[in-house]
Amino acid sequence: DVKTKRCTSPPRDFYECSIAEYNTKQKCDNYVFVRIENKNGRWGRAWVLGWLPHDEYFKKAKKLTKGQKDPSNGFIVKADCHNVAIKDLNKFKQEK
């Protein structure tokens, strides 16, 4: 499954990738995470951040609940979710 977030700047390795609690029952083998730049209503660059197998994602993830303040970035969580930092994802190998 591909999880995509809109952003306004290039992603940093400490930014987090999220899966909402209501999506945890999806029957997929792997998750791939992507961010797409959107500034002033215009789409720009995209970054393929990395991937993790389904089960490994949830072993690594920190669970946050709606209304909780994420200690890593101060964001107030809008829905129950499971987060993993970009730096903890598997990276894709680049073909030359």
Summarize it.
Helices cover 7% and strands 43% of the residues. It has 96 residues and is mainly beta.
What order do the helices and strands come in, and which of them pair?
Layout (H helix, E strand, L loop, with lengths): L1 E6 L8 E5 L9 E10 L2 E12 H7 L1 E3 L16 E5 L11
Parallel strand pairs: 1-3
Antiparallel strand pairs: 2-6, 3-4, 5-6
Helix content: under 10%
Mean pLDDT: 93
How much of the residues is beta strand, in percent? 35-45%
Based on secondary structure, the structural category is: mainly beta
What radius of gyration results from the CA coordinates?
Answer: 14 Å
| Number of spatially distinct domains | 1
What's the order of the H and E elements?
EEEEHEE
Number of strands: 6
